[in-house]
């Protein structure tokens, strides 16, 4: 570690900034936000300073700094891009034992200004020790996407109970465990969902129970999470947060390895995947397992490909949880047909081609499905078919037999949104033969309708992009 990470209290203290450009303005803005009294020295400050001029703690001096200006200064920033001014600033600051930072002049820096994720009072700082600032900014952008804005308000809310918890729980370890349960449990969920009143009541109730004998069979919770069509970048923030919280994970075969790597590493993992005519576990057994694990006090993640409520049997699973009064959350995911269509460049609706879209599954509860052909064969409509690969040939025959034009465009998207995505284009009559030639075997979505004609001009994923995407995912795993 080349630098000591610290957060410096500069409230009410003097900060000197030499320069009047964009970099100087950013330094001034940060210092003011931290409560400092800031003195800026520049003969002609730029327009970037205009929003800051009304701040009570800012003083602008239209001249160069002198040695006497450094008295009582805690930090000096150089941002003039003038070598002579930078040298004077650094030498004078160091003579007076003042911490100094000169933009892009490493030898004049006693400290580094990091990239910051600000969720005040929660603050995350990222630095590359000055070697690659762009990487630090990229990492900041990634972290920004992972931390909801409400986390700062959550920290402030919990801070109001810090003394009460310290008075009730004397052990440092026990306090840490209590806060983990509060933040990573129902209290945190209620607050992040906007219910501060119930969050406060739940926190106080939890604090009252400290030291009392509690049942060892406290009910846990189930998180029914949609993992989307395959690309980890399509997960929601809430899905990622709950994936990191779970004690046990029950996952389907459609959940990719790239997504499973994002689950908490020490969580128990149970494969309950179902293949056509080869079920690892029957649906009723999965639903019962969810209930049994939660009744043992476990936080259970049910991770399902696509969206839990669109041909995902999520409704059946939470019915079982409701019978046992087990608390649960449902996190929607991008359903497979939406992801497949988007990554294949096939809009499911289009003013010139389709004004409606219907989703169907080729498998019913008992493996046999009687389709509503009157509803399916309406004009200007797109039909998206889930789980249709195994009986694609029969489906095509049924479409034609019920009056569909055999030349209606049709597409099959295999492994949608993943690095090995494959798009097969044909018609209702030819799609089975085309899929056979392409040796399609993986999870697939079938799209039937005039919108398929748009694939050739709207496709944006190419084999090269797929290869790049795959390399990116491997890099994320290494990180």
CATH class of the largest domain: Alpha Beta
Helix content range: 25-40%
Helical segment tally? 18
Write out the strand line-up for the largest beta sheet, numbering strands in chain order: 3-2-1-4-5
Rough shape?
globular
Strand content: 15-25%
| Structural domain count | 4
On the 0 to 100 scale, the average pLDDT is: 88
Low-confidence segments = 213-217, 467-479
CATH homologous superfamily placement of the largest domain: Tetrapyrrole methylase, C-terminal domain
Number of strands: 19
CATH topology of the largest domain: Methyltransferase, Cobalt-precorrin-4 Transmethylase, Domain 2
Quickly give the structural class: alpha/beta
Gross CATH architecture of the largest domain: 2-Layer Sandwich
Q: How many angstroms does the end-to-end distance come to?
A: 18 Å
Radius of gyration: 30 Å
Major sheet: 5 strands, parallel
Protein topology:
Blueprint lengths: L13 E5 L3 H12 L3 E5 L16 E4 L11 E6 L4 H13 L3 E4 L12 E5 L2 E5 L6 H14 L3 H10 L2 H7 L3 H12 L2 H7 L3 H14 L11 E6 L10 H7 L4 E4 L5 H4 L7 E4 L2 E2 L2 E2 L3 H13 L3 E6 L9 H10 L4 E4 L4 H9 L11 E6 L11 H4 L4 E6 L5 H10 L7 E6 L7 E6 L3 H7 L6 E5 L6 H4 L4 H16 L1
Parallel strand pairs: 1-2, 1-4, 2-3, 4-5, 8-13, 8-14, 9-10, 9-13, 15-16
Antiparallel strand pairs: 6-7, 11-12, 16-19, 17-18, 17-19
Helix pairs in contact: 7-8, 11-12
